[in-house]
């Protein structure tokens, strides 16, 4: 637990440099492209259009809990896009910044957080798009929308814990990042992003196993908030299970990080 406290202390002490570097990375990523940062938002919009055509139109999955498929899908896919990219970027953050780690005194634990923050701009844009799509389909603001603040906090805490864990393991096991990419592709289809597996079409045991996925908790939570379908305390078991996952990755990730941090440069 002492290592977890140290981890959060370093995050707060490094907030200034975290935001400065993440802002620089946003501009640097697409500076050689004609459309620049437009690609940051254009690419997910193209993907959303494809998924809507395939699953919403082609496969006739038009209704989910009485909601049209497009807003239902867009609301869920918005946090997924952010979590997927932030997870993969954070996992290789220390490896990519080996030069910075070796040449200057820098809080290495802040590197995964920088990747999370640098992806927030596209998340906010996509969130605005999902709200606009919802309004066009008759979804109106309600008091449930305030619950999205809680799920945003859940998302950031999970990404921080998962990021510090993945970034350390990626240094210790060189093939881990490749494995993580494959796992994230699989999780995309079993996290309730494109279809609702809680409708009774799946056996209860399978549904219960899929609900253990922390990505599902965040995706379904944003949907419940935006669609006004319930409060997080009405699903206490899922909430407890989610925070246990966060605690596990925080404890194990921070332990691995501080145990091997002095050897990161040599391991890279």
From TrEMBL:
Pfam families registered for this protein in UniProt: ABC2_membrane
Compartments where found: Cell membrane
Domain ABC transmembrane type-2 per the UniProt entry, residue ranges: 35-260
Membrane topology: Multi-pass membrane protein
Coiled-coil residue spans: none
Keyword Secreted: no
Transmembrane feature ranges: 37-57, 69-88, 109-137, 149-174, 186-206, 232-253
GO molecular function: ABC-type transporter activity
Assigned keywords, A-Z: Cell membrane, Membrane, Transmembrane, Transmembrane helix, Transport
Biological process according to GO: lipopolysaccharide transport
InterPro entries named in the record: ABC2_TM, ABC2_TM_bact-type
Name of the protein this chain belongs to: Transport permease protein
Lineage: Bacteria, Bacillati, Bacillota, Bacilli, Lactobacillales
